[in-house]
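Quick check before the chapter quiz. The format below is the same one you will see on the exam, so make sure you can read both the input and the output lines.
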Amino acid sequence: MPDSKFLSVPVKTDRMPPGIPYIIGNEAAERFNFYGMRAILVVFMTQYLVNREGRPAPMSENEANQWYHWFVASNYFFPMLGAILADAFWGKYRTIFWISLVYCTGSVVLALDHTRLGLGLGLGLIALGAGGIKPCVSSNVGDQFSPDNQHLISRAFGWFYFSVNFGSFFSILLIPWLLERFGPRLAFGVPAGLMLLATLVFWSGRYKFAHIPPVGKSFIRDTFNREGLSAMGRLAILFIFVAIFWSLWDQSGGEWVLQAQKMDLQFAGINWIASQIQALNAIMILAFIPLFQYLIYPALEKVFPLTPLRKIGLGLIVTGLSFFVSAWIETQIATGLRPNIGWQIPAYALLSAGEVMVSITALEFAYTQAPKHMKSIVMALYLLSVSAGNAFTAIVHWFLANSDGTTKLHGAAYYNFYAWLSIGCVAVWVFVAKAYQEKVYLQGGPTAAEIEVETIETP
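Here is the expected output.
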């Protein structure tokens, strides 16, 4: 039974729901923690890792990339656990709050123990905590809307994504500087403090937002019925292509950082730290969200109708182009010239544009296509595409590793492989998207059968 002290249905209003600021504030602080920690992870493993005696014991670049991508993959695998807890047993609020405390514990462990044991335990708890709350937080945004204000849901998801990049931008600038100046204890400790703040912000808004109650024992029956399996099956096919996007995107926190270390980091009068360059993505997203919503998308609409699936297809092409830029940078590094870090700016611009078209669109699309009792589980299914993309990258690194520490595919050839993978898959995406039929479900709205959308044409 839901707690009578809390709202159990969305507030009836034609304005933005009152709980949205608390959810977005929580997300900004939590993302500060996650992206700040993630920004320095590969550098920490290759430069600061120690053994039990306190002596340096760094990883090779290839091994660090494997650890990095398996960690990210784990973060997006555990959302399925959080979704089941939220939808079937605890509800979203209690799931987010209690699993956030696990997240906080992992952050503290990472700040205190810099051995492989501490690294594994800390990252494991963070993956469980961060993964467990992911599908609940994003679907909690959509749960605040009713048919009276559903026209604002796109704006809310835009602000939600804005908060992600607002928090990550400042952490990516600050945390690498703390690592270089004060070492890993403070560099990991500050994100741990922000995670505690994120949990406090979420708790303080508990009376402002709707707590959609869990469905209890009927969860299995309702999830794995004809409607539920149909929804998950349709979306799973689309998410295979979204996984390819994430395979490329998450390399900006690993492979692109290691590439930046081989470049001239003096740019615009500032001597940058290699892992700080990731902040370009955050600041570009902050600028690109309104740019795409109010200028680029309306301009493209004049040429041909922009469905969500068309946006995703275009985004995959743009993302692939960013890796061609990275491949060109590798050719310059191979000649012994030390290219300036400014050459990564166009790569980040293309990657960020692809993110707006693929990630934001897919996030909102996944929510609207999920039956009402399956919002969290479908969000978890969407996040599994991120896990699958990173697992694919980690497996590629494992396959490419030679026994002498070298790799079978390196330099420009490595980046060209991913560029053609992303662009080439669009040829198949066209036919998959054409066959997809939209069914929109919103809390408090009509059934999907009443608002089924016509077949989407070629994207």
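If your answer matched, good. Residues 447-459 have pLDDT under 50 and may be disordered.
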